[in-house]
Amino acid sequence: MIKLDQSKLNQYSISYIGEDQALVEHLAGKGARISINNDVMDIQPYDIIIIDNSMVKRLDAELIKQAVLKNKFVFFDQANNTQDIDRIFLGQSSYEVNKESDQNSIIQLKRTLDNQYMLNGSVYKIDEFRYERLLDVIFKIIDAS
Questions:
Q1: Separation of CA 123 from chain center
Q2: What is the spatial distance between Cα 9 and Cα 6, in angstroms, rounded to a whole number?
Q3: pLDDT tens across 71-106, in order?
Q4: In the chain, what is the straight-line distance between the N-terminal and C-terminal CA atoms, in Å?
Q5: How far apart are CA 108 and CA 129, in angstroms?
Q6: DSSP character string of 25-40
Q7: Taking the complete model, does pTM exceed 0.85, yes or no?
Q8: Angle formed at CA 137 by CA 101 and CA 100, multiple of 5 degrees
Q9: Which of these, 84, 39, 32, lies nearest to 63 by C-alpha position?
């Protein structure tokens, strides 16, 4: 069982862009301040933005980049194939593929000191605690940054 840090749940508000209603309901039931916002214009008041990889092509990349510039934490969930993320956000044609069937990749879009964008990735196990694992990994990435 994964125990989420209650202080972090209270500290951060989370915007989820995707179609996994179960993720939002489950994490809200654990105390997370999370809501679905499939309109990118609605993400500005949130601290953490989680974007399902299936939504990447539908987003305005410039609005997402501006959220990073405003010190928001932007993550792409289920980013097991980063082709769209790399092309849209970094202008690159190279990409990575995670072929592990029991884990998902979580990718953070970050700004470097010289104002370039980069991706920082991690993985989490897909099991009955996958939503908790997702937030736990996000919190660890934030703490390390």
A1: 12
A2: 5
A3: 899 999 999 888 889 889 888 887 778 887 889 999
A4: 26
A5: 21
A6: HHHHHTT-EEEE--SG
A7: yes
A8: 10
A9: 39
* Spatial distance between the Cα atoms of 59 and 130, rounded to a whole number of angstroms: 25
pLDDT at site 122: 93
Contact (Cβ atoms closer than 8 angstroms) between residue 59 and residue 50: no
Helices (H) and strands (E) in the chain, counts: 5, 6
pLDDT of residue 39 exceeding 80 = no
57 phi/psi in degrees, rounded to 5: -65, -20
Tokens representing 100?
């592990």
Q: Which residues lie closer than 8 Å to 76 by C-beta, 6 or more apart?
A: 50, 51, 52, 53, 56, 82, 85, 106, 107, 108, 109
Q: What is the pLDDT of residue 26?
A: 95
User: Which pair of structure tokens corresponds to residue 91?
Assistant: 């202008």
**Contact in structure between 69 and 48 (CB atoms under 8 Å):** no
Q: Are 117 and 90 in contact (CB under 8 A)?
A: yes
Mean pLDDT, rounded, of the chain = 90
Q: CB burial class (10 A; 0-12, 13-18, 19+) of residue 85?
A: buried
